[in-house]
Each structure stands twice: as C-alpha cells, then as structure tokens.
Specification:
By secondary structure, this protein is α/β, with parallel strands linked by helices. It is built from 15 helices and 13 strands. The protein is elongated, with a radius of gyration of 21 Å.
C-alpha cells in the first residue's frame, strides 16, 4: 500500500499530515497490518525531522502562489504552477499511490490536478472555518471531505455535502496533552505570579511581538511572559526587550523563544493561565485540546480571511476572545489579560468550551478512512 501526503509549506498545512501518519502507525499496529508506504509530495517540508521520524519519503514539488492582491508575481506564478502540473503527472503516474491525503493550500493544486486526471482516490481536509479555494475545487472529485470547524460544510456546494464530515483538527499526539506539572521549573519561571503564553504562529507575528514589547513594562510586574517570537524575529525581539527591561527588577520574567520545541511547548502550555495567539486553525485546536482560555489576534482580512473566520468561529463557541489587529494596542491587550485573569469563572467556562470544541480523535478518523480506501483500491 502507498499513501501520498500533500499540503502547503506552513506548519498549519504540514503538521496535520504528520498527525495522520502517527495515527496510521497506531492503527496498523493495532490491526496487525503492514504499514503503508508514506510519501510527502510538496515544497520543502516545514519540519524535515518529523518526516524522518515517521519514515515518510519526500518528493519535491513546487507550485506558484495565488495572491489575493494585485501583483506581477501572480503572472509568473501562473506559469510556475502550469509547469508543476506538467512535471507532476508523470511523477504521480510512476508512484501511483492507493490514495492521496491533502490538507489544501496552493502547493497541493498541481498534485490534485494530476490525481483527477489519473483517477487516484483523494481525501481532502480543510482546517479553516472558511475553506480555501483549492479545497472547494477538489471537493468535486474527492472521495471524502473532512472539515475542522462547525459551519465549514455550508461553504461547499450542496451536491458534495453528503461526503463531508466534521472531524476536528488532527493534532500530533506528542502535543495533544500538556505537562500539568514541572513547567515553572523547566522554564525558570517566577512561581509567585501567573504566566501568559504568547504564540505568534509557526513563523511568528511581528505585530504581536511589537505590542508585547511595548506592554512589557506593565505586564512583567504581574506575569511571567513566555513568548514565541518566530525564528526570524527572535534576535530583534530579544534585543529590544533587553533595552525595554534594562532597569526593571522583573526582567527575568520575560522568556523569548524563536520556536518552542515540543517539550518546551508542553511545559509552557501547562504553566500558562492565559494564551495569546494568532488564529491559525492548528493553533486554535491545540489550545482547545489543552483546555486553556485564549485571546486570539487573527491576521488582518486584507492579508488573509482564514484566521478571522477561525477566530470568530472559536469565539462563538465561547472558548476565546478576539482582538482584531487594527484594534490591538498595549493598553487593550493588557486590559483584556487583566480582565480575563481577574475572572476565574470566565476562565473556567472558556476552558470547558475549548475542551468541547476539540475533537482529539480527528487523526484517527482520517487514518481509518485512508486505510479503508487503500485496502480496497485496485492497482493499475
């Protein structure tokens, strides 16, 4: 058996593939089945070590990006995508997997075109409250369609809705549960004050970083701040923070990280009382599985509509608060953190709503569907 995995190059598209691969390993072990050969076809993987850990082969394929704003790059990327389709058809014919699992994004488009032409079964998963264009297009010929958010199915054409299931978001097993003890010691936090965890997404968020830096003089006397800045922003953010807190006796309460590794993330999430984060679907479902109250700051609508839809979907469930980026300021953020921390009953309601929103068996359900198709697919 052979299963192809495809998704965009960001963590939000990549890590659900890894979570499903983990679930396939468990499922095959439980049913004493031979593990399918897994092949990731796409751009440079976000986390190459994760592919190596799970024995997933990588076949390089790049595609042009379609931007939502006018740009000459859209013209060049149209040719890039067309060339990728031409290259991908013989690649897929040679591999000929039993099923393809797609998490969408522009990087998945060439392979899905090839799959349609070669009639390879496809299962698609869309993480966002408002599904992306590639998912909406590929839904027409997909065998199954999985969505994460309630209400996402309404965005698909009525004729394909019978194929849709709300599975929730596949979260890697290693971060599905957090460390309830030891986080303060591991991260060298001050045990006399609560902790705020700031997650700017896998690539960081400059706007959130800037507001956190401006808010440090008021936040650090009352909270520990564990701040994932993004690798590219780490040095700049750390340097500015050292200046901002130069004469503060609370300087050691600020803990910046470029990217929290798995263990540090589990420890930080376990220690946190409140999480401030971007609103990528992966981040939202991780927070919901942890049962932590959240303040979400989505990417602005003029850049991407996905995160705003995700954030308000989560807020409607009662699990999070939303501050739109145009309204984000040090004063507003500090006020919301203080208000939420000062209301334990509200924190508890949000945590309970988040736990209900999470669907921790999502990866297992998708693995089951992929395995069933692979077992019944007739080879060439």
């Amino acid at each position: 058996m052979k299963i192809a995995l495809i998704g965009g190059g960001t963590g939000g598209h990549f890590y659900p593939l890894v979570a499903v691969a983990e679930a396939l390993e468990e499922l095959c072990s439980a049913e004493t089945l031979l593990m399918p050969e897994l092949v990731y076809i796409g751009p440079a993987p976000f986390d190459p070590a994760a592919l190596l850990e799970h024995g997933i082969w990588h076949k390089t394929m790049s595609a042009g990006k379609v931007r939502r704003y006018g740009s000459i790059l859209n013209v060049f990327d149209t040719f890039k995508t067309a060339f990728a389709i031409v290259r991908t058809i013989p690649l897929l014919y040679k591999l000929y997997p039993d099923v393809i699992f797609s998490t969408g994004g522009f990087a998945a488009f060439p392979l899905l075109v090839a799959a349609k032409l070669l009639r390879v079964p496809v299962v698609i998963y869309d993480a966002d409250a408002k599904p992306g264009r590639v998912s909406l297009w590929s839904a027409k010929f997909a065998r199954y369609i999985a969505v994460a958010h309630p209400g996402a199915a309404e965005n698909f054409p009525e004729r394909v809705r019978s194929k849709i299931a709300r599975t929730g978001h596949p979260v890697r097993k290693e971060i599905l549960t957090i460390a309830r003890e030891g986080g303060y010691e591991f991260l060298h936090l001050d045990p006399s004050v609560p902790t705020v965890l700031v997650l700017g997404g896998s690539q960081g968020a400059r706007a959130i970083n800037e507001v956190i830096l401006d808010a440090l003089p008021e936040l650090s006397p009352r909270y520990n701040i564990v701040h994932q800045t993004g690798k590219e922003h780490f040095k700049e953010t750390s340097n500015i923070a050292s200046v901002v807190l130069k004469d503060s006796k609370y300087a050691l309460r600020y803990h910046p990280f470029g990217l929290l590794n798995t263990l540090a993330l589990k420890m930080a999430a376990g220690a946190a009382s409140i999480i401030v984060a971007r609103a990528g679907s992966g981040t939202i479902f991780e927070i919901s599985s942890w049962g932590k109250p959240a303040i979400l700051v989505p990417i602005p609508l003029d850049v991407s509509h996905d995160q705003t839809e995700n954030a308000f979907s989560y807020a409607r469930a009662g699990a999070g608060l939303v501050i739109e980026q145009q309204n984000l300021s040090p004063h507003v953020l500090i006020s919301e953190i203080d208000r939420l921390y000062g209301d334990p009953a509200h924190q508890k309601r949000m945590a309970e709503a988040g736990t209900q929103f999470a669907r921790p068996d999502a990866a297992g359900k998708l693995a089951r569907a992929l395995l069933d198709i692979a077992l019944t697919h007739e080879p060439r």
